[in-house]
Specification:
With about 150 residues, this protein is an alpha+beta fold. It contains 3 helices and 10 strands; from the N terminus they run H-H-E-E-H-E-E-E-E-E-E-E-E.
Amino acid sequence: MRKTNFAFATVLMLAFTAAGFGQTPQASRYLTPPKEIVDAFDAPPLPQAILSPSKHVMALTFRRAYPSIAELSQPMLRLAGARVNPRNNGPHRASEIYAITLKRIADGSEIKVMVPPQANLLNVRFSPDGSRLSFQNRRDDRIELWVAVSEE
């Protein structure tokens, strides 16, 4: 009985000491990194280039760096290793593409593809002849198929 009381008293003293140290001004605080490091993490990602089959045009896709909290909190189903959003029957988290630009290889001229407002695009592909560009737009309750003419 005496050993139990001694062990309990020792643990209690250590707990109070640790709690007391945690409340002192000398305790470590959360430190923010330097501005250069924060800017490096907040920099937009580089665009992904998709070359057309004729190799005359490439599509540059621009995506968001991080998903939103609303995106992360969406419900999901795990089916055979895939994560599916039950509201639109699409992928749970996609690449978050918000803009597409077509760039002509010969002269470097650019054409912005008209995308739907608040676009959340995925699966950007050229047609086999390179004359069209298809992509999907993910909405809360559906997935839409869009086609753009690339005019090679």
